[in-house]
Amino acid sequence: MSWSPDKTKVSSWNEWDPLKHVIVGRADGGCIPPPEPALDAKVPEDSDMRGMFGPRPQHSVDAANAQLDHFASILEKRGIRVDRPDPLDFNQPSATPDWQTETMFGCMPPRDVLLTIGAEILEATMSYRCRWFEYLCYRQLLQQYYNEDPGMRHEAAPKPRLTDKDYRQDYLSDKIGVPRRLKWTEEKFFVTTEEEPLFDAADVLRMGRDLIVQHGFTTNLKGIDWLARHFPDHRVRAVNFPGDPYPIHIDATFTPLRPGLIMNNPQRRLPDEQRDYFARNDWEIVDAAPPAHQIPPPLCYSSVWLSMNVLVLDPKTVCAEASEVYQLEQLDKLGFEVIPVPFRDAYAFGGGLHCATGDVYREGICEDYFPNQ
Ligand code: DAV
Fold first, then answer.
1. How far is the CA of 352 from the centre of ligand 1 (A)?
2. DSSP letters of 11-51?
3. CATH code at 195?
4. What is the pLDDT of residues 36-63, one digit of tens each?
């Protein structure tokens, strides 16, 4: 049965098959959350955000929304159905019996929260307290998909307690220094402990039968094990990337572009012993082009490597940030039709073009891209 825009169907098995239906986030009400253990570990020590919290300036919300709306219209003009989440009032306290935080975060990056594997959309545990309730922004859409597509599976991973036991106290200092952080992350001594399963959806790359999951600040080994038990028909592989002092989310580090081709951040290389799996299955790993910018935009958590946070529309077409001239050029040379999308004003709200989207439907089936085990 072929896909049509007015009949909802949930299905997506990888990061590159032809995209037909997607969620694009919103910047409305985005907040800088107050200090909490795992979030503080990610804010660079010299960041302009240290010590700040509360609603982001309205002019920055408006600028981000203008770019998000423009991105959505680019996708729609190409025949892709676009849905948008329902923001909460993020500038209010939230709490469970275990903790309380003064503000939430926002709903710009659906990729962090929602993991689409085939007909299932899974709400991630999340690993920051300020993002514990973020799934609520997507519930209206997920309920709609559930009602309209009898094959859709709506799942939620066990909500974590997120007590102080989930976080290593060693990371509470803002004077750790980058050399020590690099040593710790190389040793896989991350801010999150193994108290309970934790994962953010943006640590998972979907590659047909294989799920490649980054072990780092936002996803622990128990989270990866939970994913492996939850998806028994998949091979779930943990990867890690020494060289990143703040390892959260795989999508500014390791970016599959089409079957057989992945870009790797040259400052965060996949270790040799983990490369073999890709090599023996004829996957080429190329260094991503350098970012065009020396520093991220103001009040932004993410690194300049959002340059490689591209959204693949199909194996020949990719959206990349409009000012990232080196990345645009590299993708062009790799044979893609490249769609430049202005997006830097949205970065501070939670990331780039891949972060800001969540798959609902891509054509194609679950294939095995790694037959040589
Ligand atoms: O390089 O700061 C950003 C990923 C956002 N989802 C980085 C990772």
1. 8
2. BB-BSSSPEEEEEE-B-TT-EEPPP-HHHHHHS-TT-TTTT
3. 3.75.10.10
4. 888 888 887 878 888 888 999 999 999 9
